[in-house]
Amino acid sequence: MDTFVCVARVLGVALLVSGCTGSPEPGVVSPSPTASASAPSPGADPWDGPVTADVEVVAQELPVPWGMAPLPGERFLVTMRDDVTLAVVHPSGDVEPVAASGGVQELADQTVADGEGGLLGVAVDPEDTGPLFTVFLYRTGEQDNAVLRAELDLDGMVLRDLTTVLDGIPKSSNHNGGRIALGPDGYLYVATGDAGDTANAQDPESLGGKILRVTPDGEPAPGNPDEGSPVWSSGHRNVQGLGWDASGRMFASEFGQDQLDELNVIEPGGNYGWPEVEGPGEGGDQSGFTDPVAWWPTSEASPSGIAVTEEAVYLASLRGERLWRVPLLGEPSAVADGESQGFGEPHALLEGEFGRLRAVHAVPDGELYVLTNNTDGRGEPRTEDGRPVDDRLLRVRLTPPE
C-alpha cells in the first residue's frame, strides 16, 4: 500500500490546568515551575512548536483490529477482536492471515466477542528471532477474561500449543482491559478492567481493575507487593495502555467514566483511586491514592494503547480521535498544587484525521505505528472512491520544529 498523506499540525494549543483540591476542572497538567534541577525547565521541550507528521497507510481493511506486537523485519502480529483471528502485516502492506486451524481454531472456540470483549491484547517474546515465536494473547471467554500462551510458526503461518496461563479475570461486555506487555524485567504485565463492577478495583481478591505482573507461566512474579498475589497496582477502572521508558519507569493509560481520562506513572502497590476518584483527587497522595500525571476530558481522549519514546509518551485516543503527545522533561515527582514535575504540556496530533485510534507502537528509528478503530461499532468507517479503507495500520514519521 503506497498511499501517503502528509499532515502538518501546529502543536501549541493551550489547555486548562487542573487543580488537585476540590473537584478537578477538565484539563491536563503542565510542568511544575519548581521542577527538579535535573529536569529541563518548563517549556524546554525541544519539540515545542510546529511538528510535521508524515503518515503512510501501510495496510487497510483490517476488521476491528485491537492489539499489535512487533515481529522482526518491520512486521506486526495483529489481533482482530470480533473475528477472533490473527494476521501478520508486512511492511509492503500485505496482510497474511495466520491459518484458521490448530491454535487459532481453539482460540476462536473459547472466545466470546461481545461488546468490548473478544480477542484483545497480544505480546511476542522479544528474545525470539524466528521462525518460532512465543506469543501471549488476552481473550474474553464465556466466564472470564484470560491470558493464553502459544507458539507461532511463521514458516507455516500456524498457531499451536495454546495454553491458558492466567484466568479468572472478571469479564463483561465492557471494561475488560486487555492490554498485555512483556516488561523490561522479562515478566508479563496484564491490564484489566473493573468489568462494570466498580467494587472490583478496590477488592484485593479480585483480578479486575488491576495491573497484574506474572511469570510467563502465569504465576505471581517475584517481588510483587503481596507475595503470592499477581496484583502489581489497583484502583483502576479500565487500563488499556502499558509502556516503559528507558529507565524502566512504567506508564499506563486509563479510561475515565464521565469526567477525566488519565495517564499514570505506575508504582508497585500503588492505588489509583477508582471508584473513589476520577482524575486527580482531593488530598492527592495523602488520601492513599496516587494521582495521574496528566488528564483530559473524556471527549478529548478515551486513551487506549500507548507508546513511550525518549522524548514523549504517545496515547492513541478513541473518542478523542487524536494522538496525544506528553513530553518527557526529566524525572517526575508527585503531582503538587495541580502541576506535574517532569512533564511538558500535552499536544494533539492527527486530530480528526483518521478517526478512532486504538493502539500505537514506537520503533527504534523514531517512527510510530498506529492502528485505527473505526469498524468497532462506535466509529464511522472511512471510504475512498466508494471503497472501504478502514481499519488501517499507519506509519507516522514525526519531524520536530527546526
Automatic annotation (TrEMBL):
It holds the Pfam family GSDH. Residues 22-44 have a biased composition (Low complexity). Residues 377-394 have a biased composition (Basic and acidic residues). Residues 64-378 form the Glucose/Sorbosone dehydrogenase domain. InterPro entries: 6-blade_b-propeller_TolB-like, Glc/Sorbosone_DH, Quinoprot_gluc/sorb_DH_b-prop. Gene3D superfamilies: TolB, C-terminal domain. Residues 22-49, 215-234, 373-402 are annotated as: Disordered. This is PQQ-dependent sugar dehydrogenase.
